[in-house]
Amino acid sequence: MGVPLRPLAIAGARSVYREVPPPPGLVDVLACGWHGRTGWARPLRVLPDGCADLVWDGEALTVVVTVGAPLRLWVPADASRVGVRLRCGAAAAVLGTAMPELPAGATPLSDLWGAAARRAEEILDGTTDPEVQRGILETLVARRSATPDRRVLAAVQALGGITRTSDVAVGISERALRRHFVHAVGAGPKQLHRVQRFHRFLRLLEPLVAGRTSLAGVAAGLGYADQSHLGRECRRLSGSSPAALVRVAEKFQTAAPSARHDLPHVPSHHRGAR
Description:
The protein is α+β, with helices and mostly antiparallel strands and 274 residues long. It is built from 11 helices and 9 strands.
């Protein structure tokens, strides 16, 4: 799940989002844990990032998946959500299913894990403390004793620092890598590479707002064919043009209490290649 809540105030309400690193024993399967509070009712844009989140919303435990297109999830006013983000490439091993089998959006975890997920929901329902709830989710993941495909994890890491997916070398053929990749991620290396590059663009929104760089310069620096190529990718992966994303970032920086914008941003696990 790519875009969590962005801290912002509106008429006395405030959305909050905080991430914490995973426990040392789960770093191979978890990217982070997180807690969010919506502040006010609205459709929340979720940008693709190739990860999957286990999310407790106070009523149900779900798996939220985004790969190739943005989602719009309705969130009620002052709702609290707690989740853990499975590392890109690790979700299939943890969930026990091929990622293409899961539709984009939210799937009840009980559809995959049955009684184990329903017991976890009962335990989660017994506390309102986000830290305790996150610990319950971490324990649930730890009990799976999952072993992700190391070749896929290495390829995901490598994709963050190359311009051509054919440059990825993890000891198997390009065709075999794609097969393993689709199973573990729900998309091939080329699609994930596009998503990762788009998130690198999102990290440059603040310099663009400040005028320290330009869209043409950013497009060239990130390896897009030209600024139009960047525009097509932004519309495909976010539903907005690059200029529109820059305007949203600018409005967030100068937001008054009446502002109603969520700024798409990059969670900490996307800062730098991984």
